[in-house]
Amino acid sequence: MSNDAPAVKAADVRDAALRLLARREHSYVELRRKLGRKGWPDELVDLELSALSEAGLQSDQRYAESYVRSRAAKSYGPVRIRAELGERGIERGLIEAAFRELDADWFSIAASWYQRRYGDEPPADFKEKSRRQQALARRGFDHAIVRELVDG
Known about the structure:
Arc Repressor Mutant, subunit A; 74% helix
């Protein structure tokens, strides 16, 4: 029985990973973390994830592109998106390639969010101006964009 167990477990790990990938793209690190929490042995997880990656079923590049598109569509800025991708184990080169692929107009994205959130009313006082600047910064927009939007 113990001779058959590794082959069955490897297939089980692969099936578990494929179920996760069927829902949405995942980074290698994300899959490894999720499968590890389920109790699968690290060596089997690494082996199966490498095979999925080589077969093109898991791709950090595809994940990064999808993630950047998705977060930009939800009005998050490049600073935050880069940090989030880094936390998910995506290499800097893949992150930058995903941003080049999207080629977004970050000012327009920030301006659209700012308009929806605050309308045409200028900040009433310094405290309100500061709140707006912090909100834009938390969303991941750089200082130049924040300043231009809030200072007008």
